[in-house]
């Protein structure tokens, strides 16, 4: 193997490492954006309204014979 072949191989390996690093950085940024979007959607859900003046005994048991 001559010197130019070694230089080309070294450059190719360095380029591959750089491309992988950029790919990982883009993936992490996309995951951060998705996480913030999901958090915003969850926070946008309106609160559950309280039960309208029902007696306190309702909803405590389940009728399994019906």
For the biggest sheet, the summary is:
none
Q: Fraction of residues in helices?
A: 55-70%
Strand content: under 5%
Radius of gyration (CA) equals 30 Å
SS elements, strand count: 0
Number of H/I helices: 1
The termini sit apart by: 85 Å
Unreliable parts: none
Taken in chain order, the helices and strands follow as H
Please characterize this protein's 3D structure.
The protein is mostly helical and 66 residues long. The chain has one helix spanning 3-44. It starts with a helix and ends in a 22-residue tail after the last helix.
Summarize, please.
The chain has 66 residues and is mainly alpha-helical.
Sequence-ordered SSE layout with sheet pairings:
Elements: H1 3-44
Keywords, separated by commas or semicolons:
1 helix, 66 residues, mainly alpha, rod-shaped, single chain
């Amino acid at each position: 193997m001559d010197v130019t072949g070694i230089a080309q191989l070294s450059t190719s390996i360095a380029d591959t490492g750089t491309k992988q690093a950029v790919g990982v950085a883009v993936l992490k940024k996309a995951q951060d954006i998705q996480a913030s979007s999901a958090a915003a959607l969850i926070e946008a859900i309106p609160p559950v309204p309280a039960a309208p003046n029902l007696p306190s005994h309702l909803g405590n048991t389940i009728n399994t014979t019906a």
